[in-house]
Amino acid sequence: MAAGGPQVNMFRRQKTGSVLCPSCGQLVGVNDEECLNCGRKRPGLWGFTGPLRALARGDAFVPFVMWLCGAVYLAMLASDWSGVSFEGLGILSPSGRNWLRFGASGGFPVFVLERWWTPLSAGWLHGGLVHIGFNLLSIYNLGPVVSHLYGPSRTVIIYVLGSVTGFLVSTLAAFVFAGYPWPLAGGGLTLGASAAVFGLIGAVLHYGRRGGSSLIRDQAVQWIISGLLFGFMLRGIDNWAHIGGLGGGYLASKWLDPLKPERGDHVVLAVVLLALSLGAVVLSLVVPLPPLRYE
After folding, report:
1. Ranges 144-153, 174-183, 241-250, 266-275: which has the least confidence
2. Is the dihedral of CA 252, 57, 271, 197 positive or negative?
3. What per-residue confidence (pLDDT) applies to 293?
4. How many domains is the chain built from?
5. 293 in a domain, yes or no?
6. Per-residue model confidence as pLDDT tens digits over 43-92
7. Considering only CA atoms, which of 239, 238, 161 is closest in space to residue 206?
8. Which helix (H) or strand (E) holds 28?
9. Residues 6+ apart with CB under 8 A from 60
10. What is the span of the domain harbouring residue 178?
11. Number of neighbouring beta carbons within 10 Å of residue 188
């Protein structure tokens, strides 16, 4: 009983007392209108500092992503079991309609169906058992590494921004290179957490360059080369999303600067980005699909 008490309290809104200002780290009252040290407005975050930090804990994010991706994948299968594929590497692949219905991105959803929010949602979806297995294993291995280097909140930011950037690049490539064959063509219909995984790799690469660690930098380069080679060897992999995710993760980590300490506003931004990306999945389910030709 005693061990459970603090965890429960961690998720409750703090109505009185003091907290650390998210910007300068000085003690402020929970209900203060402004930090007297740095001038930040509402430094007490309306008493939600504890819950926000708990959501971004380093030991919670990786299991959260893995369980959520798994739950969405199972929902995609269960909601249209008759359309599930059992062939080859696409074994246990959800139906094409469910790819669209749950928020797959790419040129077709964005430019034809006008589902503009799908670069936010596509990273939570997967197209088969092998697909989700590889991605979750990569997250399991990379997530704790990046969390150790950047802190939990900045890891969330890098993960989401890497994913979104990857699908934006892939979608734009589908428009620019329309009619060209793979691998030059972008993603007409694309999904998966691999864009976010490459975002994490981009963050490791930047850390190695920023911190002067040739060991970390070389390890990141090995991951990039092996990942891209695998992507170009196996037809159908969305290499544009991987390249975009890599660039997005690198730029995000450069902006966040791993050699500086995490701030409280990083926690807020991490939670906002998570909410937006998960909200995009909900929006995809709420907004009905137009009639499609194969129906």
Report:
1. 174-183
2. positive
3. 62
4. 2
5. no
6. 766 666 665 655 555 567 889 999 999 999 999 999 999 889 887 667 89
7. 161
8. strand 27-29
9. 54, 152
10. 56-286
11. 18
